Amino acid sequence: MVINAMEQIMKDLLDEYKGRLQLNCTCSTCLDDILALSLNKTTPRYVTNIEKAMYIKAEFIDKQEMTSLLVKLAECAKIVSDHPMCDNYQ
Ligand SMILES: [Zn+2]
After folding, report:
1. A Pfam family in this protein (predicted)?
2. What is the pLDDT of residues 29-56, one digit of tens each?
3. Which of 37, 62, 68, 86 is the one with CA 20 to 30 A from 5?
4. How does 56-69 read in b/e, with b if 16+ C-beta sit within 10 Å?
5. How many domains does the chain have?
6. What is the domain extent for residue 78?
7. How far is 21 from 47, CA to CA, in rounded Å?
């Protein structure tokens, strides 16, 4: 199994900060759109199981990098929130 550790890390960040991102819509489609967009802008870090992803989060991602991931997430949240593509806005 090969997974992108950033996927889990971004997902955790989004869970933690979605309340503060002033989203127009917080349905699962919009949250997935934000996640996908953010991950497309983030260099992937592939690991072979989910525990290793957590290890990467703990050991390799410093505060500064976490902050830049959060900035990226906020940018993508704004893009999706300004133009939601989900059923709520069709
Ligand atoms: Zn939505």
Report:
1. ComFB
2. 999 999 999 999 999 999 999 888 888 8
3. 86
4. bbeeebeeeeeeeb
5. 1
6. 3-89
7. 29
